[in-house]
Design brief:
Number of helices: 2
Strand content: under 5%
Mean pLDDT: 83
Largest sheet: none
Shape: rod-shaped
Number of strands: 0
Order of helices and strands: HH
Helix content: over 70%
Radius of gyration: 21 Å
């Protein structure tokens, strides 16, 4: 039961970290969009394009990490509930 609780806490921590990283990336995207007037020229536009691609990949990877951690937490919860039922059946 302790192992499944630790797995759940780790999954929840990973979910929170991924969500926090997604929020930070989204804020950075918003900041860059609001400050596009500070960039000028073709070189700077290619730099903006690279930044946009990187941030899009960051958002997708954080979203995937969040979903994986959510499923891990869900599985750990199911495992913990099954362990509890087995221990209660054993006592009865």
């Amino acid at each position: 039961m302790l192992v499944s609780s630790i797995a759940r806490f780790n999954a929840i921590n990973t979910m929170n970290s991924a969500l926090s990283a997604s929020i930070q990336t989204a804020n950075l995207v918003s900041y860059n969009i609001n400050n596009t007037h500070t960039f000028g020229g073709e070189h700077d536009l290619s730099m903006l394009n690279k930044m946009d691609k990187k941030m899009s990949l960051d958002l997708l990877s954080n979203k995937l990490l969040y979903k994986i951690a959510y499923l891990q937490e869900k599985l750990a919860t199911k495992y913990q509930n099954n362990e509890l039922k087995k221990s209660l059946n054993f006592l009865a």
